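Honest question from a wet-lab person: if I give you the sequences of every part of a complex, can you actually get the arrangement of the whole thing, not just the pieces? Trying it with mine:
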Amino acid sequence: MSTPLTPEDQLTNWLRRRVARHGVDLLGDDAAFLPRAEFAVTVDQQVAGVHFPAGLPAATIGRRLVAVNLSDIAAIGGRPAYGFLTVAAPPGLSTKPLLAAVEEELARHGARLAGGDLARSKELSTSLTLFGTRTPHGRWVRRDTGHPEDRLWIGGTVGESALGRLLLDAGANFESGRVLLAAEHQAEARTAAVARRAVRRHLCPHAQLELGEWLARRRRAAAIDISDGLLLDLERLCRASGVGATVNANRLPVVRGFATASKMMGTNAVDLALTGGEDYVLLFALPPRIHPPEGLGVTEIGTLRAGEGIEIVGSEPPDRHGWDHFSSY
Amino acid sequence: MSTPLTPEDQLTNWLRRRVARHGVDLLGDDAAFLPRAEFAVTVDQQVAGVHFPAGLPAATIGRRLVAVNLSDIAAIGGRPAYGFLTVAAPPGLSTKPLLAAVEEELARHGARLAGGDLARSKELSTSLTLFGTRTPHGRWVRRDTGHPEDRLWIGGTVGESALGRLLLDAGANFESGRVLLAAEHQAEARTAAVARRAVRRHLCPHAQLELGEWLARRRRAAAIDISDGLLLDLERLCRASGVGATVNANRLPVVRGFATASKMMGTNAVDLALTGGEDYVLLFALPPRIHPPEGLGVTEIGTLRAGEGIEIVGSEPPDRHGWDHFSSY
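Yes, you can. This is the full assembly:
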């Protein structure tokens, strides 16, 4: 199967064609590598009602903004260094908790908030441009270096964030650090606990910087972070590397109780795992003889192969193709 | 007189205090200088209804976004190198003209669009993070290097952009490259021509990169770009340099017919020149014996002096203090 290009892919491809006219190819990885520079750069934004529900606490929004950018740096095996922030916020909204959260979250990962721009707007939107430096004794990790026969790995569970998003769409709330589910999702205590963790996973993602640094110290690795769904991001890695892939759906790591909670939300666990987005775990390919240490908590889910397209074994392929940031709350 | 801090100054000061805890001082100039890096970085955003009237052509918005960022690079004497763009746009709006304009405008100044992020939102907002490199055989220009006895210069006319903003607020439109004034501002042909140019100046500013590079090759210069009004930005330069300043209001360069057009808009030319914002000309201080070449089109408007505060001679001080980006259309 071949997935259609998302609007963001279309933009990126269009930009790449334009930029190529000037004799450079900076785009296509999770971050741009600047020629003759020690930095890679990534930029991501968070818009109220699109990336998070309006009314989310400002500090949570700030931490989420940092996490999605850190995940891009993790995907290229870098270390975060400097962040530049923009905030456009409605007049009544206090932005200081957001700024403080961004500054603290960057500092917690050894990076500094180095500048920004503040403006008024009707709805909250915020962006971060994040610089990463190369891991000491490491190289930049790219998405276009996968080979046929490489083993395909994943850095953590998938689908949980998308489940959280479904629960938020169905009325869940996040206040004072607590998840409040809609009444109909609280009936079964064990499933409700799974659901609450899923909402938290969606709103408070964690970037896999340690795993990225481990990959950067390998002789060869290809990686991407799963922001738009496993299938869609795998398709990107495969296209960039000029290979196809086979994924064993039965091996996809999901959290305990995930199938029941998915069913409660009227959906299918394998579909969510393959196409649910914003997991922010790394998807990576390694030569067959390389086995990551147990402590990294990674799972082998398939192989790369000559040719093109993604083959799913062990389950029906899902109906949907991926997470679209252009859908709204 | 001492001007109050704008919300953006307050944010910047707050950030500086936070960042200083980690042993760095990256903020306070128009761009951040990264330690051990060859780049300086600036970020600015443009939000519909705040920085430009909703309905402005997307290409014009893109060029304006680039110009205000280029002006920050001009103020530090740098050369633009790489831009990273975010666009959050309503579903119906075609963003390609905006992207194309940003890419072309960067290319026209020797810079490259190197990455970006696209999202959906209720209103159009867009930001650019721009990297500048140091001018060959030049140094970074800072705002904190002014000395008492320095002469104070300005790179072009002031107040015209603010006049344009008043005309837009009063119903002027910009369509297909033409300015359409409200009916009551078209009566007198010569003043109408001044008014149309003012609207164009507001919407389509030009950064003074050549002047910035000339300053970068001087042994000592202090500079800032006038984004929030001459008085407010001069106050910033003076605070950073630990000096006061005397400005001769009679020397302020304004366009021909400016006084009449200001009067038509119910305001005062000197007020507009001193406090109208978004001029995007450079305000700079040079040792007394240094005279910029005629070709740069700059004007001497006063001197720096020991002490603090801004003294205006040759006119009454204005009522307002500066341009506030937090005011809305």
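Two things worth pointing out. The first helix of chain B runs from residue 7 to 20. Chain B touches chain A through 59 residues (CB under 8 Å).
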